[in-house]
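Reviewers of the previous submission asked for a worked example of the structure-prediction workflow described in the proposal, so we include one complete record here. The input consisted solely of the amino acid sequence. No template or homolog information was supplied to the procedure at any stage.
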Amino acid sequence: MNLPNKLTVGRIIAVPFFVVLYMMGYNLTAFILFITASFTDMLDGKIARKHNLVTNFGKIMDPLADKILVYSAFCLMVENGLVPGWMLIVILAREFAVGGMRTVAASEGIVIAAGMSGKIKTVLQMIAVPLLLLLKVQALVSVTPFIALLAYGFLWASLVMTIYSGIEYILKNKSVFSM
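From that input alone, the workflow returned the following C-alpha cells.
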C-alpha cells in the first residue's frame, strides 16, 4: 500500500477517535484531529499525482474517507443542534443520488469523474466543520459571534454548493437514467 492510500486509510481510522473525543466534550482535541485528518485529504492527492501513485483504491476510498469524516461530524452536530437536521438530509440525499448514479454508470463500464463543484462542496464542508467545532470550545467565548458568522456562512455555502453540484451531476449524466 502506497503512502497516499495509507493517509486515506488513516483518515478513516481517525473517525471513531474524532467521534469519541467530540462526544466526551474534548472539543479542542476533536477540532485538532479533524483539521489533521482534513489536511491528509489534500496531502494524499498531491503526493499521488506528483509521484504517479494514483490507484483505483485511492480513487474510490479517498472521496469515501472524506464523506465518512465530514458526515460523521455533521451527524454529531445535528444531535447537538449545531446543524439543522434538514440540512443533513439534503446533503445526504445528494450524496446517495450521485453515488447511485455512479454505481449504475460503473455497472455499464462508465466512470463519472468528480467535478469541480463537488470538490468545492467538500472543501466548504471541511471548513465549516472545524469552525462549528470551535463554537463548542469554551475558551473562545469572546470571539464566538464572529466564529458563528463564519461557521454558518461556510455551512450555508456548502449547502448551496451541495445542491448545485448535485443538479450539475444529474444534468451532465442524465443518460445514466436510461441505462
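Residues 73 and 129 are 7 Å apart (CA to CA). We consider this example representative of the routine output the project will generate in years two and three.
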